[in-house]
Amino acid sequence: MAGIRELRGRIKSVGNIKQITRAMEMVATTKLRRFQDRAVASRPYAEEITALVGRLSGVLGEEVGEMPLFREGAGDKVAMLLVSSDRGLCGAYNSNAFRVLEAWVRASGLEKDQIDFFVYGRRGYQYLSKRGYNIARFIVEPPLEEIDFNNAATTTKAVIDAFLSGEYREAKILFTTFKSMVRYEPEVVPFLPISAATLAPTGRTQEEAEDEAENLSGDIILEPDAEAIFESLVPRYLETRVYSALLESLTSEYASRRFSMKNATDAASDMQAALKMVYNRKRQEGITMDLLDIVGGVEAQR
């Protein structure tokens, strides 16, 4: 069993680790609130622009299917935008995303050379590189924490240009959806070509969506016409989807990091308490032995 001096050193070391994990938990909590506010604030805009694009596509009808972004590409490869973290110490955030990725690859029946990745986050880049996946673009600047709508628009344009090049048949996004402080789920969602499923109205029934499309085509006068508005809205709609995915992933990352650091702090507290108990017992045993030696020496002198 460890001696008193060694136990004292271990108690101090665990205390230092506990201070670090507690500080990291507080930082993660602060950043979580900031990114959560941004993610929540962006959701109404994302929902409305999705609903508007869906209503306008209903007005245009079959014309939409002839647009390049609404039909499958000519190639046989798939482009995927993968959102991971730059740093670790965020629990199972990255490993859950990678597990969903591997499950999707198996289900799709695609070979590794048939998938090109656009990657946010060093952890994702390291994971894909070690396993021999093709990385078309690793987005380093700006860091994910400093991302804004303009940066998301630049990334969106890169994915759209790749899709329109004819090399890919579709594009997807793998990101982590923030559900609550303790629930965040990675998922693979379709991005291009745009389909009716991605334009499904949120909070509206199918009958309500059809009524709105009928109103747009009937009583409401659009200036410029519906097709011109639609063509200008579609890029902004795609940019909004990418921006929302980045914000959701960032929020999920810090929620996971906060939970992980809280668990580490609690584990350090438990370990420190257990070590102190052993330390006190050893110290008491030492005091008892010293007293016995003293009493034995006194008795021997008598």
From TrEMBL:
CDD domains: F1-ATPase_gamma. It is found in: Cell membrane; Membrane. It comes from the Bacteria. GO terms for molecular function: ATP binding; proton-transporting ATP synthase activity, rotational mechanism. One of its GO terms (cellular component) is proton-transporting ATP synthase complex. Its main location: membrane. Keywords: ATP synthesis, Cell membrane, CF(1), Hydrogen ion transport, Ion transport, Membrane, Transport. Produces ATP from ADP in the presence of a proton gradient across the membrane. The gamma chain is believed to be important in regulating ATPase activity and the flow of protons through the CF(0) complex. F-type ATPases have 2 components, CF(1) - the catalytic core - and CF(0) - the membrane proton channel. CF(1) has five subunits: alpha(3), beta(3), gamma(1), delta(1), epsilon(1). CF(0) has three main subunits: a, b and c. This is ATP synthase gamma chain. The gene is atpG.
